[in-house]
Amino acid sequence: MFDWQRLHASEIALIASAMKTHGCAVLDKLVTDEDVRHASELAERLVVENGNESVLKGGQNGLSGYLLSELHSDLDPFLRELFEAILGRPGAPTRIRQSSRFLAGASHNKLAGYYHFDSYVISLIVPILMPADGLGGEFVLLPNARPLHQPYIVSAVQKALCDTRFMQKRLASAVHDGRTAHLPMRTGQGYLFIGHTSLHSNARCIGEQRRFTVIFHYGDPHEGSRLRQLGTLMSRRYHAVMNSLRL
């Protein structure tokens, strides 16, 4: 297990600098082999129960408190200091948001290759099952694609444009022109990046390979924005109505 106690403020500052300069920082041996095995077995069970298709968990259903629970509890002070190092100032206390992406089956092709920004400043990906070398599933990153400090409305418009089919095709073409980084991932390591400013996705897996990851998000760059609060409320109402229509 990664030793958080040995990290000094100067080392956290170096991690923040690597994220801003190179796009990603890697924490070696973040979780133990035993934790990886336990998490991957749980993920496999959920995928099998879902007909060997992908399972996505987020928010209150992100398996927080159960999947990698010890890591979740240890992360808070580290992410708080890292958040302050990236912003250059203290930030408001933020809860860690945990999500899980267990990609498998035909549905995985619809989820892979989708480029997006995260709503939170810091993103930490912990792979618990990855395809064998050469069989896809790499982390694809286009760092520093937009500023960190900008109004919420600008970020919202950028996200909406990014979600269009036209822009997704443009972004997919960037994969082949050298502007993106392709990072093979190793289970048990932690991959830190500034998800709010970096466009990112994952490469498709070849054949029947599966890709299971746990993601931790921290730091809302638009904390306190009334416009964001209104947008969140409208989104929740929209999804509530759509879910009721499916009943």
Write structural notes for this entry:
With 247 residues, this protein is α+β, with helices and mostly antiparallel strands. The chain has a single domain (4-246), classed as q2cbj1_9rhob like domain (Jelly Rolls, Sandwich), CATH 2.60.120. The chain is 39% helix and 19% strand. It has helices at 9-22, 33-49, 69-87, 108-111, 152-162, 165-174, 226-246, and strands at residues 24-27, 55-57, 97-103, 122-129, 139-142, 181-183, 190-194, 199-202, 211-218. The strands form two sheets. A six-stranded antiparallel sheet has the order 1-7-4-9-3-2. It has a three-stranded antiparallel sheet with strand order 6-5-8, with no helix packed on it. Helix 1 packs across helix 3 (69-87). The longest helix has 21 residues, at 226-246. 32% of the residues are buried.
Q: Total number of helical segments?
A: 7
Low-confidence stretches: 241-247
Task: Give the CA-CA distance, first to last residue.
Answer: 44 Å
Largest beta sheet: strand ordering: 1-7-4-9-3-2
SSE order in H/E notation? HEHEHEHEEHHEEEEH
**Percentage of residues in strands:** 15-25%
- The CATH homologous superfamily corresponds to q2cbj1_9rhob like domain
Tell me which CATH architecture applies here. Sandwich
Query: What structural category do the secondary elements indicate?
Result: alpha+beta
The top level CATH class name: Mainly Beta
Mean pLDDT: 83
Shape designation: globular
Percent helix range: 25-40%
Organism: Croceibacterium soli
Protein name: Phytanoyl-CoA dioxygenase
